[in-house]
Amino acid sequence: MRLRRGIAIAVVAAGGAVTTLLVGLVTNAVSDESRWPGWLGWLQEHAWFSFVVLGVTMAGLTALLAGLSETRDPLPPMRADDGAGPGAAQVLRSLPRDTAAFTDRATELEQLVGSVRASQERGEPLPVHVIDGMPGAGKTTFAVHAGHLLSERFPDGQLFVNLNGHTPGRTPVQAGEALASLLAAVGVPTPQIPVGDDVGAVTEARAAMWRSRLADKKALLILDNAASYRQLEPLLPGGSGCLVLVTSRKRLVANEEVVMSVDALPPDHAVDLFVRLSGRSADALDRGVVGELVRLCGCLPLGVSLLAARLRHHPSWSAEDLRGRLVAARDRLGELRAGERAVTATFDLSYRDLAPERQRFFQRLGFFPGTDLDAHVGAALGEVSVAMARRHLEALYDDHLIDEHPGSRYRLHDLLRDYARGLAAEGDSMDHVRAVERVCTYYLAALAVANGHIVRSGAMMPTAPDGASGVETPALESRADVLSWLETERANILACVRRANGLALYDLVVRLAAAMAPFLRQAGPWDQAVGLHRTAAEAARHTGDQRALGDALAELGVVRRFMAAYPQAIEALNDAVAAYEAVDDRRGKADALNQLGIVWYLTADNEDAARAQTEALALYRELGYRLGQANALADLGMTHRQMSRFDAAVEAQSEALAIYRELGDRYGEANSLRDLGVVHCLTGAYDLAARHHQDAFDIYLELDDRVHQAYALNESGVVRRLTGDVEGARTAHSQALAYFTELGERFGRANSVRHLGVVERVSGNATEAIRLLEEALDAYRELGSRGGEAASLSELGVARGIVGEHDGAIEAFERGVAILRGLGDRCGEAELLNHRGTLLLTSGDPAAGRRHFDQALALARDIRCPLEEARSLEGIGRCEWTVDGPGHGVASLRAAVTVYRRLGVRAAVDDIERLLAPRSG
């Protein structure tokens, strides 16, 4: 998809103040309605961003992809309701499955369920329930079991997040990172999730948005494995109807919480659990020996489960046999592990019961940098086939040495992970490094397959390293498969990058960052992508690989552009150009120049933008890279249009369109059609503009791209209004407004509101027009869009003049024209001058009005904008008619009629002919 114009929209709420962290779009848009939607922001499309902390994929995110050369990769919208329309109700359920091994904790359950029930019945806010206890006591199992029991009381969703507070080898999940996942899970589009360099401000902003989203909901949130109250506090919903269950090894106390301790099981309950899991009847077991067994493992559910599994797998053993083996295992541990011997002995007993090849496999699971894994990752870690890895994982699960999670995924309990890592540390010191290398190589091979589905045809894709050819990868046969897999593995892959960087495996860091770039560009959050590409750039500097450095800096620049951090984007992209020049990488240089041109376009540095795109185009032509040529031409065409060089804009965009069609690039084709439609609208070719907009809309419909459908509807509505179909315009803009509101796309929504304001003004409802235009003006200012602000001010001046607010109208015009002149938008300036001339004429100062019409006429003729030329001629004629009396100004009026007729603007023709009718009679 030829997607341009990054949007990163997020409102930061901190200390009661609302601060714009991300500016949403172009600061250089022009004023006329026909100039806005398509060419300002080839908005990014939808992709999933989901719960990844525990590997539980949860849909919900609409990521709007910003455009870049080979990074304009189309992802069709995906919805959290599995195929229902975006407006359908969504109930998010990500609790791990309830376990059959849960044993009676009637007192604790009664306390929890009773507390929740009582609060709900009294209409009181639900307190946070903190479940603490020692490792292995079953805190998570208890919380999940309680969550399933209470799920019907929380119909708006049940969510689970693992905060990795005490996970060996993993740093605790930062609150801001967890909030990004939660917001995505409840359907917040990526551009609306706050990002920025101030971690504290971003976390506060995300927390405020999270509280707002759950304010009127009844949802259940389990925050598992919390490290501190500070970590979890920002995640607490603000609504009184939400229940939060927190598990932690620490006592996290606050005044509003209910603290529940989950200790080791009472001996009788531990014995009951052992009997149930052992597969033996109670009569066949010596209860006294079983009692001693469970006491030896501290009556911890984890240890009891492991011991029972040992007995179940050895039918010839008696409980006394198992007791003897456990005592021997405790003795083997010695004093080094004396403090942990109660449960570690059960691990040791279970481990030593495994076949040697399964022991090796289990050890290597401890090396996995991520949290949860599947058979493919297991195969990479264990150097076995996927089929064998699956057998190992199933056997380890049956032995209670790993936990199973939805989607055939597995996870080691933190204690078992630590135990596995300890075993591995006793062996080959390089085995850890080799295991990380193997799993990184697996991910690179899988990402190469995934990128084949999401990177545009002809674009350069990161290649898998040597040795990846024999790696078994998942069946990723469709875009939907790819998105689901990427969301599931995102956190694991990023954890692998961190581990590889810590082990100085810099080549793998660079490769993984490049392979993840296409997905992160589309799915965000972009501050996560910034961190990744900074790490890759440092890794490339360590290796001295200038090409890799250029790639990392270019990606960093692109993401910075999406965040509207334009100075940082320019710095990174200039550094990328220098890195590419150092190794004579012309393709890389061309891509970076193309991106620089886009940034300069967005900041209204039009001459620099045109120069960068022209240089990029020349390099692409030398290389014979057709997609790059099309992209540079399309961006060059948009720059020309912004400079009111309409002939040059049509020429460049038409050539781009031809290449996109040659390549079969439907997104590129649709976007070029849209931009051509905008230019044709500006030059008065309304029939051609309408056809282009309709053709673009049809392609977006085919691609199921609702964001761009809405933009095409807005543009179609502009043409309808200008050609007299006011009700058709109202319908188109209203439909676009509904789409943008539904999808959470604030910039597009602001456009629709402004267009509807113009429709109300031409329909004679100036008061409603003012209301709508002021709403749009506020939205554009919040988004940092100067062009949108100028367009709204221009129309506000007209509407305020109609209701007699002369001073307010003049103020709006003066502020608007200052912005337009700063942007170099001469067509927008001509429109505003005509509006101001009309105000002066109708308020009794036709001489001043005539001066403004003369200025507008000169501009309109210079840039060949016929609609503003006709409006200027009409204004000049009406001024002469007013000053010199009826019968004067006829030549100008008839000249205006000629242009209006050519444009098909029938209403304007009728108005003038009514004025001239008495004279004609």
UniProtKB/TrEMBL annotation:
InterPro entries, per database record: NB-ARC (IPR002182), P-loop_NTPase (IPR027417), TPR-like_helical_dom_sf (IPR011990), TPR_rpt (IPR019734), WH-like_DNA-bd_sf (IPR036388)
Residue stretches making up the NB-ARC domain: 111-276
Transmembrane residue ranges: 7-27, 47-68
Regions annotated as coiled coil: none
Keywords linked to the UniProt accession: Membrane, Transmembrane, Transmembrane helix
Pfam families for this protein: NB-ARC, TPR_12
Classification via PANTHER family: HTH-TYPE TRANSCRIPTIONAL REGULATOR RV0890C-RELATED, REGULATOR-RELATED
Protein name (Swiss-Prot/TrEMBL): Cyclophane-containing RiPP biosynthesis TPR protein HaaT
Organism lineage string: Bacteria, Bacillati, Actinomycetota, Actinomycetes, Kitasatosporales
